[in-house]
Each structure stands twice: as C-alpha cells, then as structure tokens.
C-alpha cells in the first residue's frame, strides 16, 4: 500500500488582513523555521496581499495561496481574477468552492469544477472544498451530499500535485463545533474510496484536509484520524501562535 501523502496545513484568511499583516506572516515564517514541522504550510491571504506575501515568503517553508479564481484565463469579467493572474502574483495554490462562496456567490459544482480545472491549467494546486450543511447531517444525507459534490466538481483528470480536497462541514466553520472523530473518519474514508475509483495510481496520493473550527487544542486528535492529511484553517490561522500550534500536530 502506498504511504500517506505529506500533510498540508493551510490557512484561509478570508477577507482579513492589511499591509500591516505582513508582520504576522513574518512570525509564522520565523516560527516554522525555528521549529520545523513534518507538513507543508500555506497561507491564503486576500488577493490584495498575494504579491507582497509571496515576496516575504519566498524561499521560506510557507507557501502562498489564493482564495478563489475565475475559470477563464482573461476577458471581460469585471472584478474577477484568473488563475493565471494569481500565479503571476506569486500564488502556488487556490481555494475553490469554499462554502462561503457556494452560499453567497451561488457557485455550483460545475462552477467549482471549472475553477479547479482552471487552477491546473495555470499550474496552481486547487484546494477543492466540499461539505454538508447541518440540515443534511441531521437528515443522514451527509455522504450523499459529499458524493454529489465530488461527482460534480472533481476535475476529469486527477493530479495529486494539482488537487487537494478539503472536507469542511458547513456547520463546523467558524462555530467552534466539530464532528466526532468517528464522523470525520467516515467521511474521509468515503472521499478516499471515491478518489481511488478509476484512479488507483493517483487517488491515494491526493491529500484530504479536514476544515472547520480546527484549533491547537483539537488539532492533534483530528489530524490523527485515518485519511486526514492536514487541515484547512480559518479563524485560527490569523494568529501565528495558533496556526503554528495547529501545525505542531505534525511534530
Ligand atoms: C474555513 O473557513 O475554511 C474554516 C475552516 O474556518 P474556521 O477554521 O474558522 O472554522
């Protein structure tokens, strides 16, 4: 059996951060250098900070990612940013299909698939988010929802260098609530099985992150679950101490 992929701990800063936040990124980089962890690290700042963060992080253990992209490479799409532009600004990855965008921008699985494919086209790694709502969990419809999202949004060709899945239960994001370890294990095993279907060579190498209220206090337990290959972290990634405290699960 192939060995588990190298984990990734990625921070999604959402719409937070000004130029002064470079100091916090600096603390993350210094902390990662002083106390190395056995996982990849990434910070996804707002688009306005991508270029300066990429400059600060160059040659450091911290990669820089973006939070969304348009599916087209160029064109008349006012206010949007293409995957090629993100790469040009220094990003090496982009989050696609975050539940906040699915909800507030009405993004469909087909939209998310087009964005994940655009990321690969531009040489970026897509962090593709999926997850059930509270109503779906309570109705016992979690796995059906996950299956629909995977069927509708996975790119046609799986490339473990260009794709990461983030399982983020919508009800766990920013709420302080987390699923039980058993529930996380069930969903991650289900995702792994689906990735392996027809992709025996690459399906095992695609990282599956857990996201939703990950904190230093619960990271070790969550990261210890089978087929959890890291975390996508929102609120706790804004403070170097907390972000590094989560990554320390891999020390
Ligand atoms: C997220 O928004 O991707 C997320 C996981 O947020 P939080 O860690 O704050 O729950």
List keywords for this structure.
10 helices, binds phosphoenolpyruvate, TIM Barrel, single chain, 251 residues, alpha/beta
Q: Give a quick account of the main beta sheet: strands, pairing sense, barrel closure.
A: 8 strands, parallel, barrel
The number of helical segments is: 10
Q: Could you tell me the number of beta strands?
A: 8
What would you report as the Rg, rounded to the nearest angstrom? 17 Å
Order of helices and strands: EHEHEHEHHEHHEHEHEH
Specify the CATH architecture: Alpha-Beta Barrel
Give the rounded overall mean pLDDT.
97
Shape: globular
CATH class: Alpha Beta
| Unreliable residue runs | none
Q: What is the CATH T-level topology? A: TIM Barrel
Bound molecules: phosphoenolpyruvate
CATH superfamily: Aldolase class I
Given helix and strand content, the structural type is alpha/beta
What would you note in describing this structure?
This protein is of the alpha/beta class and 251 residues long. Strands 1-2-3-4-5-6-7-8 form an eight-stranded parallel β-barrel, surrounded by eight helices. The model has no long low-confidence stretch (mean pLDDT 97). Helix 1 (22-34) packs parallel to helix 2 (50-57), helix 1 packs parallel to helix 10 (240-247) and helix 9 (216-223) runs parallel beside helix 10 (240-247). The chain contains ten helices and eight strands. It starts with 7 loop residues before the first strand and ends with a helix. 46% of the residues are buried. The chain is 38% helix and 16% strand. Helix 8 links the parallel strand 6 and strand 7 (207-211). The protein has a single domain (8-250), classed as TIM Barrel (Alpha-Beta Barrel), CATH 3.20.20.70. The chain has helices at residues 22-34, 50-57, 83-89, 99-104, 109-121, 134-138, 142-153, 181-196, 216-223, 240-247; strands at residues 8-12, 40-44, 62-66, 93-96, 125-130, 163-167, 207-211, 230-233. Bound molecules: phosphoenolpyruvate. Residues 12, 168, 173-174, 211-214, 232-236 line the site of phosphoenolpyruvate.
